[in-house]
Amino acid sequence: EAPAPLKVMISGAPASGKGTQCRMIADKYGLVHISTGDLLRAEVSSGTEIGKKAKEYMDNGKLVPDQVVTDMVVSRLSQPDVQERGWLLDGYPRSFSQAQSLESFNIRPDIFIVLQVPDDIVIDRCVGRRLDPVTGKIYHVKNFPSESEEVSSRLITRSDDTFEKVKSRLETYKQNFETILPTYSDLLNQINGNRQVEVVFQEIDSLLQKICENTSANKLTK
Ligand code: AP5
Question: In the annotation, is 130 catalytic?
Fold first, then answer.
């Protein structure tokens, strides 16, 4: 019997590198990457009711109301691909009430990873971030410029990546982060995210490897 699939939560300030690391984790471990920011941006760009509600909060760097985000996440988590392949939750939970909702459904991760990056660095990362709407790849004007003219001509900037909006997002993050910590204190792993992408990934990778080894060892002794 195959071991139970991995369940991973990743948290951190705006532009701490969650999306970048999640792509690498999902590639290697086959987990379903669920980013509430990406899900909400998709709702906004398709002009749905959820998108209409969410847009104003996102533009102001505030949290979208808990119920809206929680319904979206819980329904995604119940899909068969998630049950089969495991999940990687990026940017959720972000408030005490969101963490409590997951607890009430008995949804707990194997590990809670927090990427730590100083404020001045995250501001610079946000302002320089560019996205490829075709591949979903994340770039940065200085740190990770695009590979070709063709790609660079189609890159877009997120509307909440201005200096003022990033400051407000950072404030929101700081106000809420402490309130979710107690729920996951036994699973908490804080990682220095202010290093090269590959170095950060190596550290996450070795933590995940350990969990996989422990789960298969437990299965064998049962
Ligand atoms: P969301 O999209 O989740 O935004 P965020 O938390 O602000 O995080 P980012 O997507 O900005 O950054 P990231 O950590 O993924 O960094 P990335 O890898 O891109 O949420 C947006 C909004 O949606 C929220 O403000 C809120 O309104 C709403 N929302 C979302 N979830 C919600 C929830 N649960 N409840 C309520 N509302 C919610 O990297 C950033 C840049 O840095 C890139 O340019 C990248 O190339 C570069 N970079 C990455 N790693 C490195 C490195 N190691 N070294 C140098 N550069 C790097």
Answer: no
